[in-house]
Structure formats: structure tokens, C-alpha cells
Specification:
alpha/beta, Rossmann fold, six-stranded mixed β-sheet, two-stranded antiparallel ribbon, 10 strands, 19% strand, globular
Length: 242
């Protein structure tokens, strides 16, 4: 990694925190969050609102350029991106604008109109014979969602009678809570612009309260103990200054 690349990544992570897209139990929500994986978490990363933020153009532009560069260098054979509903869609589009790699996107699997109207597509966009597809998303925790997306891509390819491959996932942030190991176990590869546990959180240290930083770094190492309701209640009391 070059010094310039790291500077851009630091800028992105700081913009995300300043714009309220990286939330903490201490600053934003005392009760914390339950993730899709059913894990309780003292922090939450939400890029679904990125297009409405004051610095959305700067953020998306920086992301598109940095992630596009990473894909070109690490995955030169990728010919198509698939942005994951919902936050992965603007990110994939930003990468397309910056890199020229075409992008598709997934439909919400709970969309009640999928079965009734239109063309009933689970992937919007054209796949081409020989496409090497990379899944694009904002965050990864356990990798389960990415496996579901791969199934959607395979389903779409079969419906379109196209021979495509999909073995790569590209995310802005990896929470580093087992996703890389899960990817390898499923013969896939995970690429992240900012590994949150080993880099992202460290770059935010000066912006956080000491207790905020201490709890989140400890959680990233030992998340199992934070699933205890008693500890969650103690953290809630800390946030409420009780």
C-alpha cells in the first residue's frame, strides 16, 4: 500500500464517522444494534444514506476511485460488478464511473413485486458469456449474505443462459469477524479497502471518547462476551451516564 492510498482510506473512514455513517452505542444508540447475523454490536456501519449526505459526492468519488484501483490491481480479470441491495448499489455505480467496469445490481429478495410484475429479475443488468463477476457491498461481517448473492447471480446467469463465474467479493469495510475465513471455506476470495479491526478503528481513535474506542476494539477481538445481556445493560448505562 502506498502512502497516498492509505491517506485516501483514512480520509474515507473519517468522513464516514463525521457524517454519522459509522455509529456507536455511546454516541448514537445506547442499546446498541442486533446485526443480520444476530450478533449484538456496540457499533453499526450504515452506508444506505450515503447519497443524502453533505459530502456524498466527495465520499462516493473517493470510494469509487480507491475501490476501482484495488479491483484493477488485485482482480484484473473482473469484467462485471454486482452491487448488493441496498448500499452496494451506489458503491458499485461509483466504481463503474471511476474504473469503467460495468455494473449490475441485486433486487431485494423480499420484494413482493418480484414475483408479480415486470421481468421478475433477481439481478438487474446484462450478463455476458465469460463474465467474471465480483460482488460489491459496503460491509461484511459473517459472509452469509454474500453467499446468498452468489446464488442470485448463478440463478440469473442460468435464466439468461450465460456462462459466468463469481468467486470474488469486494467491500469497502470488513469488520474482520470471520468473513475472510468463511470466504475461503466456500472457495471464494474477499477483498476489502479498509479492514476495520486492524486499521479503520485505529484511524478513528482520536475522534472517539476513550471508553468508546476501548469497548469497540475489545469487542472486535472478543465479540462473544458482548452477547451477554448483563454486559449490554452495563454499556447502556455508561452511554446514558447513569
Amino acid at each position: 500500500m502506498t502512502a497516498n492510498s492509505e491517506a485516501i482510506e483514512k480520509k474515507i473512514i473519517n468522513l464516514l464517522y463525521n457524517q454519522g455513517m459509522i455509529k456507536t452505542w455511546y454516541r448514537d444508540k445506547p442499546e446498541g444494534w442486533t446485526l443480520v447475523s444476530n450478533l449484538w454490536s456496540p457499533f453499526y456501519i450504515n452506508l444506505r444514506t450515503i447519497g443524502s449526505k453533505k459530502l456524498s459526492y466527495e465520499l462516493l468519488s473517493q470510494m469509487g476511485q480507491a475501490m476501482g484501483k484495488m479491483i484493477k490491481e488485485e482482480l484484473p480479470d473482473v469484467t462485471k460488478l454486482v452491487g448488493v441491495y441496498l448500499a452496494g448499489i451506489p458503491i458499485a455505480t461509483a466504481i463503474t464511473i471511476a474504473s469503467g467496469i460495468p455494473s449490475c445490481f441485486t433486487r431485494c429478495k423480499w420484494d413482493k413485486y418480484l414475483e408479480k410484475y415486470g421481468q421478475h429479475e433477481v439481478i438487474e443488468g446484462d450478463l455476458v458469456d465469460g463474465d467474471r463477476v465480483a460482488i460489491v457491498d459496503d460491509v461484511v461481517t459473517t459472509f452469509n449474505t454474500k453467499l446468498e448473492v452468489k446464488k442470485q447471480i448463478c440463478e440469473a446467469a442460468k435464466k439468461q443462459s450465460k456462462n459466468v463465474s463469481c468467486s470474488d467479493v469486494v467491500v469497502l469495510l470488513d469488520r474482520e469477524q470471520g468473513a475472510n475465513e468463511a470466504a475461503k471455506a466456500n472457495d471464494m476470495r474477499l477483498f476489502s479497502l479498509i479492514p476495520f479491526k486492524t486499521k479503520g478503528i485505529i484511524w478513528l481513535k482520536d475522534k472517539m471518547e476513550d471508553i468508546e474506542y476501548s469497548v469497540i476494539t475489545d469487542y472486535l477481538q472478543y465479540n462473544a462476551k458482548y452477547q451477554e445481556k448483563k454486559l449490554q445493560e452495563e454499556l447502556r448505562s455508561l452511554a446514558l451516564k447513569e
